[in-house]
Amino acid sequence: MPRRVARTTAVTSPPKMTTRSPSVNAATKAFPLVSAAESRALLLEGCCLARTPTKASRAAVLRIIRELGFVQLDSISSVERAHHLIMHARLDGYAQAMLAHHTETTRHAFEHWTHDASVIRRDWLVWWTHRFERSRVRLATHAWMRSRLGANWQATIAHVHDQIKERGALATRDFTPPKGVKPKKDPGEGWWNWSPHKAALEFLWRSGDLAVHSRRGFEKVYDLSERVHGPRDTMPSRGDTVEWACTEALARLGAATARELCHFMDAITLAEANHWCAWAVKEERVARVYLQRGARSDIVGVARLEWKRAAQKIELHSEPRLLSPFDPLVRDRARLSALFGFDYRFEAFVPAAKRVHGYYTMPVLVDGALVARVDLASDRAAGVLRVARVWCEPQFPQAQSKSHAATACARLAMQLQLKLEMATRSRGS
After folding, report:
1. Which residues touch 51 (CB under 8 Å, ≥6 apart)?
2. Which helix (DSSP H) or strand (DSSP E) does residue 290 occupy?
3. Is 155 within the bounds of a domain?
4. 3-state secondary structure of 162
5. CA distance 42 to 50
6. Confidence band (pLDDT; 50, 70, 90) for 181?
7. pLDDT (tens digit per residue) in 13-46
8. Least confident residue range of 29-33, 179-183, 315-319, 378-382
9. What range defines the domain where residue 147 resides?
10. DSSP conformation class of 28
């Protein structure tokens, strides 16, 4: 039997969508303005980047997961994988086993999708039931997925499910390739990539029937969801889900547009986010505000009721540190540009000749500002973190920015237990 959702506080969901959110007109000019500086402070606090990095421990890693809500996963390891870099930026002495402890032993976190593949706090699993069902319907009719599953796609899915039920946790490589399919090496996802069995595993995982049990390197090992997390929770109402998604997003963003609330976890639609904003303002759950966003005209959004006082209390930490391209602060490129004046493009998938800054560049954060970006890579065989170039942002003193970048690189090298080799070249962006 599915277990009921346990809540410590009641969720009051907005009524069904019957009207559009109010448009901006002359009558709304009395909205308070959240300055760019205040938005930056609130966002840095919500991203756990306003305070001094603390000593790493299993408990500290779990605290970061819970405060962020989720940590994005990524397979690129030219410096280090993104989820580990996110922890390194916030914790001193972090070790990879600390995160694995919570995903594979305590089960305080689980793997699934938000805006991308992520490690997510376990008490949020109940809210993924809508996503599971939505994924099941979408993937069953998706031409690309159906082509990978093959003509007898339902039988393939049932076979893979039965094999895991009988044999226990399995990875893609544990299945025999179908007749006529020649295995090809794929270090990230096993020895045969997107065969019918691989597609079936992803289908069952996306739809919640399977869960990630553990990882071999970066390869997912799947098991039945109930064996990993227990019986599935009762599906909350859609209204409760919208209320949860918007409330949790705003708690971390501080002040945001409806679109930013929607895309924080990609759990709801823009229409649902707009409707919730209008309802929450009417119910005095949030404040209707103008948001100052760089050179753009002020835009209408919402903010936590105590946003002004909260922003004033935040003291930004000054130790320079490097951020992953998939850090919660960095991953919304438009917001990053509007609030920090930092135009960032991830160039790993850009042809080498067309790259401007490098394959894997990391922004340098200090005093609540992004003052530079660094093109770097780990040479694990040589035990070296090599910095090819530092690109300083033109609005900050170049010599000081270069010094901050060097300090941030030295910190990461120490975290990764590598020797730092710093190139002498630096340029303005």
Report:
1. 45, 317
2. strand 287-291
3. yes
4. helix
5. 9
6. very low
7. 565 554 344 444 434 458 999 999 999 999 999 9
8. 179-183
9. 124-176+193-229
10. G
